[in-house]
Amino acid sequence: MKQALFAVLAMVGQSAVLAQELDVKTRLESTLGLNVLSVADAPVDGLIQVTTDRGLFYASRSGQYLLQARIFNLDAGMRNETEVALSQMRRDGIKAFSDSAIEFKAKDEKYVITVFTDISCGYCQRLHNEIGQFNANGITVKYLAFPRAGVDSPTYDEMVSVWCAKNPQKAMTDAKSGDQIANASCANKVAEQYMFGQQVGVTGTPNIILPDGSMIPGYQPAAAVLNALEQAG
Questions:
Q1: Where does the signal sequence lie (predicted)?
Q2: Which residues, in sequence order, are CB contacts of 174 under 8 Å at separation 6+?
Q3: Which is catalytic among the residues 61, 91, 118, 126?
Q4: CA dist., res. 42 & res. 49, Å (int)
Q5: Could you read off the pLDDT of 157-190 as tens digits, one per residue?
Q6: In CATH, what number is assigned to the domain containing residue 45?
Q7: Does residue 148 have an active-site annotation?
């Protein structure tokens, strides 16, 4: 009898939590225009973690307060709990986009990095000029698209042409060298990659994601990236 009562109470409590999370989701979407992808418990009591198309937020369970913050765990050596969550999101997303990335594979591969790129970005072009050095260092580079001006920009259209080219690797190199590339269209995930980047904290390019999901914003030479990979283990 007691077990049945406890089960009923647990179901009632779970239903109340789900209703509360749904209310927060509805409130954020209707008030701020955010697309809420998931709601989960936050590392801090009284807060929930909200994953949106514009990044990771925290909210009070009532939905009254919204925080854009970093949570650090003092009892765990100042572990950045927000970055832990984002790193997992990056790893999961990169895995999901593995078939739609443009890859420059190292012959003797030791590491794989993912780089959010924009073909019109000067520092992206500079990084790509070192693609041979990255590969020589055993680093495979996988590119995901991040047209900084958004999906309604000429750069977006050009990046679609790169992703849809018969030889995307050559098209990427040509585009970053300033050469004209042929217009092309196909089923592609350029927009989805761009939205994914926004979700996981990418605000500019190039943006390098290491295998553990940690992020290096901005250009770094091949030797510096190799050092970071070796340090990360």
A1: 1-19
A2: 180, 181
A3: 118
A4: 5
A5: 999 999 999 999 999 999 999 999 999 999 999 9
A6: 3.10.450.70
A7: yes
Q: Containing domain of residue 29, as a range?
A: 2-69
Q: What is the CATH number of the domain that holds 200?
A: 3.40.30.10
Our answer to whether residue 118 is catalytic in this structure is yes
Active site residue 164: no
| The model's pTM | 0.85
Tell me: do 129 and 206 sit in the same domain: yes
**Cα separations in angstroms, 194 against 40, 182, 198, 202, 221:** 24, 22, 7, 9, 24
Quick: pLDDT tens for 119-159: 999 999 999 999 999 999 999 999 999 999 999 999 999 99
Instruction: Tokens for 12, please give them.
Output: 């009632």
Of the candidates 27, 61, 126, 148, the residue annotated as catalytic is 148
Examine the domain organization and report whether 144 and 202 are in the same domain. Answer: yes
Structure tokens at 109: 């591969």
